[in-house]
């Protein structure tokens, strides 16, 4: 089909009753729309993926900072497990040695965590730390069922 014919058909379609369509032009328009939609979705998915990855990295850095505060206070954290609530919100479950959990150092650690959260939480990122004493046998299947799936090995060990 020549360019003149395409122009003529397109003009005719725009001037005539909407019930009369040139099928080849409609197919081309539909294909262009679908291609544009797919490209737009790919860009959106990539942007969301990059946003999530950057927030995971931020959660990792903050968790490392909290772990350092634990060590400085003599507070023994046996394990940290991350739960992604959504693209910007995270919970970190800290499994603490029972004696440390019951010690006075807990007050210092909680204060440090509040300061760290205040400095880092925003509309784009939110992190919360939950502490649980290690009281012997822990059923990790229950923890996993609550969404805490990513175990973290701190760099400072």
UniProtKB/TrEMBL annotation:
Source organism superkingdom: Bacteria
Name assigned to this protein: Uncharacterized protein
Species this chain originates from: Brumimicrobium oceani
